[in-house]
Amino acid sequence: MVGKKWRKAAAVGIAGVLAVGVLAGCGNSSGTGSNGKMKIGVVQIVQHPALDESNRGFVDALAARGLKDKIEIDQQNAQGDQSNLRSIANRFVSGNYNLICAISTPAAQAMANATNQIPIICTAIADYENAKLMKSEKMPDANVTGTHDRGPLEKQVSLIREIIPNVKRIGIIYNSSEINSVVQAKRLKEVCVPLGIDVVELTVNSVNDVQQVAEGFLGGNVEAIFIPTDNIASSIPTLMSVANKEKIPVFGAEVGHVKSGVLASESISFYDIGKRAGQMAADILEGKKQIRDFPVEGAANSKLYINKAEMENLGIQIPKSVLDRAELL
Prior knowledge:
With 329 residues, the protein is α/β, with parallel strands linked by helices. It contains twelve helices and twelve strands. Strand 1, helix 2 and strand 2 (71-77) form a beta-alpha-beta unit. It starts with 13 loop residues before the first helix and ends with a strand. Residues 1-30 have low confidence and may be disordered.
């Protein structure tokens, strides 16, 4: 139920009231609303398919644990605005919310800066250590933990090489103000160096810069382009209009990119990492575990997706070995 609060459920008798009371005592008890329900704040930096899927997975996990009628979820979207994030964080803290779910690195940083008391479960974050959310992902040392969205970059590069065997230059475009994107660019270069592949980096300050900046990939500068999990995902059609001028194959970090027009992706499931974050949150709300009991986790598996229309548009011959293991969209 992304974007909406659950309504107040009807009273179901003394036993139900007692059950709610037990759960409320496991979190920040002062955060319970007048209806006796625990208050859960969910915030994401901006609306786009990957983050929305993480949000949906988180909410579904709480419902699957039987918490739907025992909690009140306050869904907030910062619309890409840092000042909005700060306002949302202050409201969650002043309202003594029992738990916060932060979706994306900027959202997590804003929430962590606002409170060191309320448990914060995060998802869709590339690197908790580089984002200064904790010293070690293996041993959370404060009130923050969750799931990361690091995709299998080795598999992504291997896929590019299967489709473009002689690739020597891969372009990457991202928002330089997003630490998660900076980390992904660094890791892409680390994967490519032993393979003799150069990485051409282009950065933007906002989605409005994508078209002009992406022109830098033209003129034979790259044989392929990779898009990390970055908020420029909303401008994929703009990027594709540039790349298709020279029939440059574009690869994405996740399936939402393929649905938006890129050629292919070896993608993790953002729904699954959101769901796992929800399961962590449920354990905390039920008093079974604490933040420090949860090392940061990632997706266990990935799946290959190919955009059939873009494949035909490029006129590219994709090996049968690749097509046989792919889902065509």
